[in-house]
């Protein structure tokens, strides 16, 4: 879900608490907790701002080279715009990781678990 409504549309890793049918919005909790907090910050977000992650053992769509995605930046709980450098099936070893280049990351190539690589919403491509 977008962390804030800004032009960058930063997306965070969050847990769905419940769905409020009357207003058609999800209540979600940021999984990034501050020290000494039991729970992360909670947000109400529209259905269009929620992208479900595949569960363990679930179907993982493979994206081709240069495909625009949002991916979980290593060691954070934020998703950022990125491009696929090498998908898992094109690497020399059997892996569930993509090699990805994040926008504005000095052309660094990073490993990201396939579970946290999602097709970019159309407005972010």
TrEMBL record:
Keyword Nucleus on entry: yes
Highest taxon of the lineage: Eukaryota
Alphabetized Gene3D superfamilies for the sequence: 2.30.30.140
Localization terms from the record: Nucleus
Protein name: 6220_t:CDS:1
Stored PROSITE patterns: SGF29_C
Natural source organism: Diversispora eburnea
UniProt entry keywords in alphabetical sequence: Nucleus, Transcription, Transcription regulation
Keyword Signal included in the entry's annotation: no
PANTHER family per the UniProt record, alphabetical: SAGA-ASSOCIATED FACTOR 29
One Gene Ontology cellular component: SAGA complex
InterPro entries: SGF29 (IPR037802), SGF29_tudor-like_dom (IPR010750), Tudor_SGF29_rpt1 (IPR047288), Tudor_SGF29_rpt2 (IPR047287)
Domain SGF29 C-terminal: 1-125
């Amino acid at each position: 879900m977008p962390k804030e409504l800004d032009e960058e549309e930063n997306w965070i890793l969050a847990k769905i608490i419940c769905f409020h049918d009357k207003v058609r919005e999800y209540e979600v909790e940021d999984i990034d907790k501050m020290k000494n907090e039991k729970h992360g910050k909670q947000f109400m977000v529209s259905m269009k701002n929620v992208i479900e992650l595949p569960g363990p053992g679930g179907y993982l769509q493979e994206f081709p080279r240069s495909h625009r995605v949002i991916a979980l930046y290593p060691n954070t709980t934020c998703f950022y715009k990125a491009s696929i450098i090498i998908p898992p099936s094109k690497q020399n070893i059997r892996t569930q990781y993509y090699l990805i280049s994040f926008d504005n990351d000095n052309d660094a190539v990073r490993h990201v678990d396939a579970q946290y690589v999602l097709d970019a919403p159309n407005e972010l491509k």
